[in-house]
Amino acid sequence: MKHQTMELPFGKKQTQQNSPKIIIRIIGILILLTIISLYYPLLRYPSFLLFNTYSLTSSHAYDVREHSLSVNKSGEKCDIFTGEWVSNPEAPYYTNTTCSMIHDEHNCMKFGRPDKEFMKWKWKPDGCDLPVFNATQFMEVVRGKYLAFLGDSVGRNQMQSLICLLSGMEYPVEVWQNEAGTSKRWQYVNYNFTVANFWSPYFVKTELTYPNSPNPFSLYNLYLDEIDYSWTTQIDEFDYVIISGGHWFFRPEMYYENNQLIGCHYCKENVTHLDMYYGYRKAFRTAFKAINSVENYRGITFLRTFSPSHFENGNWNEGGDCVRKKPFASNEIRLEGNNLELYMTQLEEFKTAEKEGMERGLKFRLLDTTQATLMRPDGHPSRYGHFVDIDTNEYNDCLHWCMPGPIDTWNDFLLEMLKIENGRSRGS
């Protein structure tokens, strides 16, 4: 199958006579890189970003992940988000028969996925261990607290994974939903713990350009400087808010600022073209500013970073599919193209928001799932989110995640970060 690769930055072909000069230059470059690595130790960025086409400038030399550093047995700090997938025969820790919260589109076992190995991996950080999810520990950390997932269906996918991981202890009771049924709250009565999903894939004020259009991928108006009040009016009582998003920005969109149409992405109208990164950046900027402006909000905001899809041999609407059966190793794939641009945009806006939040005493934390997610092309539903013997004309799903599956590891990360925060609070 086709797989995207990255061209090496070496210009035109060299003649054989130039070989000694090339070798000398390469040796010089390696010496320079060694010196840089000694005095500027990777700028605290994920290792998978250091060998691609993105140029890390001084403006990116900012440790956005310092608060998620775990401590290994030697007392050294360890980045839990950089590592490899390793075999875990004990997984999974729930099934589609023990958890009723799995939506059909994620229920790969129900719809006949024949292989099971995609469920039997765990994340192993370089230099330390990441414990698998412990429901008892999680409930003790969040007892009496409120946790919200804000964003699109991938964020909801993670929330459902969390509920399934907790299903052996208690099932929550639904206590609220909005009129459309897209946003909901559940309560774990015995722990006085509330978990919510706030549906807002663009974060900002949004409306269909043509409300009566039957096309599910119709054009949207995005008011990039106006917030979606459906979630900002809800979060003031929450202790933790996990914001995530990205895939909706690939859709056709009309961009507005100051109530004026300024451009569009992927539209046929005679309007100035703006790429999706413009709308993506502005939407995250507006969302972060809104969080920092909610008067009574005192919670911790987690940015769950962009989750790459894994369509191969075509786009999602051109027959693309994801049929790989095992994870990539870290040296087999690179973050590049749209995935890299979206990820770096998030980090840049996160950096600004974190600085602004510090002025109010608000905490921002990076739940950096991108590398681990990039390495799991085997974890998507593909055609197993519906009955495969029925001609439904549905596309293969290489964006969402089978449950159980790799998405459960996102909650391993979350619990570890909450434990770090809890330990920091006790020590202060």
Automatic annotation (TrEMBL):
GO molecular function list: O-acetyltransferase activity
Subcellular location: Membrane
Record lineage: Eukaryota, Viridiplantae, Streptophyta, Embryophyta, Tracheophyta
Topology in the lipid bilayer: Single-pass membrane protein
Family the entry assigns: Belongs to the PC-esterase family. TBL subfamily.
Domain of life of the organism encoding this protein: Eukaryota
Keywords: Membrane, Signal-anchor, Transmembrane, Transmembrane helix
PANTHER family named in the record: PROTEIN TRICHOME BIREFRINGENCE-LIKE 19 (PTHR32285:SF48), PROTEIN TRICHOME BIREFRINGENCE-LIKE 9-RELATED (PTHR32285)
Name listed for the protein in its UniProt record: Trichome birefringence-like N-terminal domain-containing protein
Chain segments annotated as transmembrane: 22-42
Source organism of this protein record: Kingdonia uniflora
